[in-house]
Structures are given as C-alpha cells and as structure tokens.
Write a structure and sequence with these properties.
The chain has 13 helices and twelve strands. It has one domain: Aldolase class I (TIM Barrel). By secondary structure, the chain is of the alpha/beta class.
Length: 311
C-alpha cells in the first residue's frame, strides 16, 4: 500500500491527505436540516449529516488528492450511528480509489494492539470464515507502550501489505511536555524516530524505497522535522498541522527527501470547512464542496512552489 500511495502522489502531483474530521459546526445548515428532518435531532440524524457532508467533499476532491484521513474520534462521539458513518466513509473513499489513513492513534499491550490491528487493517476469524473489519489502508499508532504495542500492527502490515504511521513529534502545542524531554543528550522524539527507522527496516516492501512503517511529525515543528528527516531517511512522514494549525508550504520542504517524496501533508478543517474562511466565503454553505476543492488546489500550489524554490 505504501507503493500505491507513492504512485498516486506522483499521478496527482499532490502530496496531500485531506483529513475528514467532521464536526457538526462544520456541516452546512441545509445538510443538517435534511438529516434532522429524516432522523430527528438524534445521534442517527447527526451521523447522517456527517455522512452526507463527507460524501460531498469526497466527490469534489477525489481526483485531486491521493488520500484521505478520517479521524475516528469525530465519529465515535456520535456512538454506534457515528461508527456506521465512519465505515460508510471508509468504504466510499475506497470506491473512489483513495488511500484511506484511519487516524485511530491506537497502541496498547500486545494482545489489545493485536485486536486493534486486526480490526482496522487485517481480518478477524469467525468460525471457519474471516472478515475485514473497518478496512483502512494505514492507521496511526501510539508507540508509548513500547514495541509489544507496535509489533502486532507491523505483523498485519507485512501480511496485508498495509501501513502504519507512528506518532513521533505531534503538532499540538503541548507535545513538548513529554516529547521534547531530554533522554541523555537527545530529546525523546528523536529516540522514538530512531526506533521507527529500526522498525521500518524490518518492514520493507519487496520493491520500494519506503517502509510500511511511517511516522507522524507535525508541520508546526519544522526544525524538528529537519532532524527527523535525517534520522528516518526511508520513512514516509505524515505531516499534520498545515493551514488551520499554522503550517505552510515553506515550512514543509525539509520533510521531503531529495526525490521530492517521503512526506504527505494533512489539512483537515482548512479544507473541509473552507467555506467558513474569509478567503472562500463567496462559495457559501450550499457550495461547501466547491470551496473544499478550491482549498485543495491552493494547497497543492503552495506546496509545489515551496518545493520548487528549494531547487
């Protein structure tokens, strides 16, 4: 799957992943009204609104980008109906041939991580049969319980030729409270990055330059990104924090290798709620999906110019 992601990045010329992180405050009123008319102001109504909102965005952007990243918490908040909307979103995106990165940030003791890995990336056995659970192509993984929390995901990656992105240096403001702590002479995030590179060496596709084991490094920390790019030369980096969190194309060039690959940049509300920004306000809520498409095109141009300026 890492090779498919790279191929699609090359074809679209867009190292971009759209974060499908729906909140009801992002959903235009006409979509909420239709959902609530059909299901009431219920969890089912909220889930229907989220699903229809997502579908409109995917229809508008699937030809421009290689991947999407639904954040599972935004669906879990609506209970079982929300999880059904999550599954419908994953399935629909795969119908559109998008690579799906499930932003689940799981990581637990070995047996529990095995169940997470099976449920999201692998197949679960039921009697004599086996079934795919959620069916994402990649998921995000929290490494802070150690190797026994990550190895089950790596096992499934090798079996299913899928991938993971391990949290190394996250984009949130307080990430440094732990991730920047010195362990000896190096910050913890750098040690985690070195471990990710080690795991990646154990999980390479037969033909490819990048591992099934990727890393998450926030766009909001470009200097750390420079360091981690050198620590993890064969690791694909998922870079959150573009746009709404302050990252911009000029900050991102050091996340890429000299081949122009090695990173995929995430924007969530900067794209899916673009119509609420002054720049795209002319589209209005009725044309929210067109605003999302315009935001993708602008982001693609911003990144391309930054990479071209690097030379």
């Amino acid at each position: 799957m890492i090779n498919k992601l790279i191929d699609k990045i090359r074809k679209t010329n867009a190292p971009i992943v759209v974060g499908l992180d729906p909140m009801l405050k992002f959903v235009p009123e006409h979509i909420k009204k239709a959902a609530f008319d059909g299901y009431g102001e219920t969890l089912e109504g909220a889930a229907e609104a989220v699903w229809q909102y997502n579908k409109g965005i995917v229809d508008a952007i699937y030809d421009l980008v290689p991947a999407v990243k639904p954040q599972i918490a935004m669906y879990e908040q609506f209970g079982i109906p929300g999880m059904i909307a999550f599954q419908k979103t994953v399935d629909y995106c795969k119908e559109k041939d998008l690579v799906v990165i499930g932003d689940i940030k799981r990581g637990d003791i070995g047996s529990t991580s095995e169940a997470y890995a099976v449920g999201h990336l692998g197949k679960v056995s039921v009697g004599s049969k086996s079934y795919c659970g959620f069916g994402e192509d990649f998921v995000t993984v929290n490494p802070y319980l150690g190797s026994d929390g990550v190895q089950p995901f790596m096992k499934i990656c090798r079996e299913e030729k899928k991938g993971i992105f391990v949290l190394v240096k996250t984009s949130n403001p307080s990430s440094g409270e732990f991730q920047d702590r010195l362990v000896g002479e190096k910050p913890l995030y750098e040690l985690v990055g070195a471990q990710v590179a080690h795991w990646g060496a154990e999980c390479m596709p037969e033909n490819g330059s990048y591992s099934y084991v990727g890393a998450v490094v926030g766009a909001t920390y470009p200097e750390q990104g420079k360091i981690l790019r050198k620590v993890m030369p064969r690791t694909f980096i998922l870079v959150p924090g573009y746009g709404a969190q302050g990252g911009k194309g000029a900050d991102l060039v050091h996340f890429f290798n000299e081949d122009g690959l090695g990173a995929i940049i995430n924007s969530s509300r900067g794209i899916i709620a673009a119509y609420q920004q002054e720049k795209y306000a002319e589209f209005g809520g009725e044309n929210y999906a067109d605003a999302a498409r315009a935001a993708v095109l602008d982001m693609r141009e911003d990144i391309a110019q930054a990479l071209a300026a690097r030379g």
